[in-house]
């Protein structure tokens, strides 16, 4: 039997998620949106069914506003919520998106209680925490997408600047999904060569700053709404690792219970994602400067999480 992927939110990211999941034949796909947008969700699903002959995939893709239709989902990806507009921080979305996540958590808990859940809605670190608290799902089955995207941006900017294949750029970004996130130049390599050996400090600092502000750079360019291609791919990478037990080590927002000295918060850390979900958090031996930066981002996440009052 095919796997089932439920996409909660059929907007900009949701529709790209549906396309990527179909093209990768991850399973059958349900796009769920609010009742007022049930028809557009159905329309997007039908459009993707009609793309299948050329896309060369077999997947049943449907649109709905009824949570009963996500029953038995193996993976749930949540993008329901408002995106940022120019001039807004992710934290500005807290109240409106907390309300939405509360409804989504109830719907998922009642209808897909066994699903592996990937949260994309911003402010991400607080929304994944809220979803975890509200569903009561185990920490292995609730994960936030952010670090996978932040690392993709870090790798992309390095490849663009150095004129090398992005495939050969390896590295990671820790911490919250905001301007205090922590790219780790010391542990970044280009074809095995340390980044710090081939790029000047000021160049690296500039790339790190661009990474921290990458979401905002896109928001400014769009004028309306936020990034959607790269967030969608990042979530699909996590979903695929779970569904195919690829056991990839991906930076995700995971519940830390002592790791990195964090207690009870979702923070971007390297996670092993396999058939049992978020199976393991890897701890990196950080130097003092990196530790200080991580503490700062943890403080920001804690403050936003406290505002959820959960
Ligand atoms: N249930 C299901 N869907 C909902 C709900 C809900 N309770 N509330 C809102 N939605 C839907 C909206 O109707 C919309 O179709 O979520 C969709 C969000 O789509 P967009 O507005 O296009 O936003 P998008 O760019 O996809 O971003 C979604 O991800 O990266 C974050 O900051 C971003 O919080 C935002 C989220």
Quickly describe the structure:
With 310 residues, this protein is an alpha/beta fold. The protein folds into two domains: 4-146, NAD(P)-binding Rossmann-like Domain (Rossmann fold), CATH 3.40.50; 147-306, Alpha-Beta Complex (L-2-Hydroxyisocaproate Dehydrogenase, Chain A, domain 2), CATH 3.90.110.
CATH superfamily of the largest domain: Lactate dehydrogenase/glycoside hydrolase, family 4, C-terminal
Helix content: 40-55%
Low-confidence residue ranges: none
**Number of β-strand runs:** 14
Instruction: Give the biggest beta sheet.
Output: 6 strands, parallel
Spell the H/E element sequence.
Answer: EHEHEEHEHEHEEEEEHHHHEEEH
The CATH topology annotation of the largest domain reads as L-2-Hydroxyisocaproate Dehydrogenase, Chain A, domain 2
Strand numbers in spatial order across the main sheet: 3-2-1-4-5-6
CATH class of the largest domain: Alpha Beta
Binned strand content: 15-25%
Radius of gyration: 19 Å
Which architecture of the largest domain does the CATH hierarchy give at level 2? Alpha-Beta Complex
Distance between the termini: 38 Å
The geometry reads as: globular
Structural category is alpha/beta
Catalogue the ligands.
Answer: adenosine-5-diphosphoribose
Number of domains: 2
Number of helices: 10
Overall pLDDT metric: 96
């Amino acid at each position: 039997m095919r796997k089932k992927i439920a996409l909660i939110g059929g907007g900009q990211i949701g529709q790209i998620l549906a396309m990527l999941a179909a093209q990768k034949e991850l399973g059958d796909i349900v796009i769920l949106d609010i009742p007022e947008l049930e028809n557009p969700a159905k329309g997007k699903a039908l459009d993707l069914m009609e793309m299948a002959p050329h896309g060369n995939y077999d997947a049943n893709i449907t649109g709905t506003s009824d949570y009963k239709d996500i029953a038995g989902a193996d993976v749930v990806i949540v993008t329901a919520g408002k995106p940022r507009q120019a001039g807004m921080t992710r934290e500005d979305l807290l109240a409106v998106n907390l309300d939405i996540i509360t409804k989504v958590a109830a719907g998922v808990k009642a209808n897909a209680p066994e699903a592996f859940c990937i949260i994309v809605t911003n402010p991400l670190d607080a929304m994944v925490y809220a979803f975890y608290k509200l569903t009561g799902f185990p920490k292995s089955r609730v994960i936030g997408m952010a670090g996978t995207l932040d690392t993709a941006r870090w790798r992309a900017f390095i490849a663009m600047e150095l004129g090398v294949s992005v495939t050969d750029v390896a590295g990671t970004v820790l911490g919250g999904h905001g301007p205090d996130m922590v790219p780790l130049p010391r542990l970044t390599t280009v074809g095995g060569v340390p980044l710090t050996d081939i790029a000047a400090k000021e160049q690296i600092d500039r790339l790190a700053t661009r990474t921290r502000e990458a979401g905002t750079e896109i928001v400014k360019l769009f004028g309306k709404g936020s990034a959607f291609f790269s967030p969608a791919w990042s979530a699909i990478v996590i979903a695929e690792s779970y569904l195919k037990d690829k056991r990839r080590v991906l930076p995700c927002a995971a519940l830390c219970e002592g790791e990195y000295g964090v207690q009870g918060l979702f923070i971007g850390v390297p996670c092993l994602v396999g058939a049992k979900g978020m199976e393991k958090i890897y701890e990196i031996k950080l130097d003092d400067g990196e530790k200080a930066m991580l503490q700062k981002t943890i403080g920001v996440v804690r403050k936003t999480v406290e505002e959820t009052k959960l």
